[in-house]
Amino acid sequence: MQPIELFRDCYQIHEEKTLHRLCELAEVRRLKKGEIFLYFGEVQTHIALQTNGILRGYYTDVDGTDHTDCFSFRCGNAAMPPCGLTEPSPINLMALTPCELVTLPLPETLELIRQSPELFQVYSKLLTEALRLHNGIKNALCNYTAKQKYEWFLQEYPGLIFDVNNRYIASFLHMTPETLSRLRTATRKRIEG
Fold it and tell me: DSSP assignment, residue 89?
C-alpha cells in the first residue's frame, strides 16, 4: 500500500496540502518475520502506521519470561507502544509475520498535526481507539473465564489463532499453552460435532 492510499482511503484525509506534506515525510518500512523494530526502553523517533502483517508487543519480566502485551494486525493501526510519544517504550514491538509500516518522523508530524484540524481529528481518533482497545483487553483479561477469554480473542482478533504461535496467544490471555490447547480442541469438537 502506498502512503497516499493509507492517508486518503484509510484515514480519510482529503486536505491536499496535508496529504502532500504527509507523503513528503512518509517512508515505507518493511519488516522481516522476527524483526524487533522498537525495543523496551527506546524512545520513538517516528510514528509507525501499519499497512499489513502481524505485530506483537511484549515485555520480559525479571525472570526472563516473555509476556505478550498486545497484537496489531489491522491496516491503519498505530504500531506504537502504550506510552507518551517522548517516553521510553515499556514493551518491545516485533513482527510475527513480514510486515509493512508507513513511518513519519515524530517532530515534523506533530507540527503538522498542530497545523491541520483534519489531521488532528485523525490523531484524536487513533488515540481514542487505542484507549478503547486497551480498556477492552484489560476488562476481558481481568473479568472473563478462560473459555470466555478464548471466545473473546476469536471475535476480536479474527484469524490470528491460525497465524500466531499458541504460546504468544496463551501469554496474552494469561493462561497456560495447555489450557489454550484444551479450549481449541473443545471448540473444534463442538463445531464439528
Answer: P
- H-state helical runs in the chain: 3-5, 16-25, 106-115, 117-143, 146-156, 160-163, 166-172, 177-192
The closest alpha carbon to 11, from 108, 172, 126, 144, belongs to: 126
pLDDT score for 179: 94
The amino acid at residue 28 is V
Q: Which residue has the cell 506510552?
A: 83
Q: At what angle do helices 146-156 and 117-143 cross, to 10 degrees?
A: 150
pLDDT in tens, 33-67: 999 999 999 999 999 999 999 999 999 999 999 99
Question: 3-state DSSP call for residue 101?
Answer: strand
Mapped onto helix, strand or coil, the DSSP state of residue 141 is helix
Tell me what the mean pLDDT of segment 4-32 comes to.
95
What's the one-letter identity of residue 133?
A: L
Rounded CA separation 59/69 (Å): 7
Chain segment 123-180, per-residue pLDDT in tens = 999 989 888 988 999 999 999 999 999 999 999 999 999 899 999 999 999 999 999 9
Amino acid letter for position 114: R
Grid cell for residue 38: 522498537
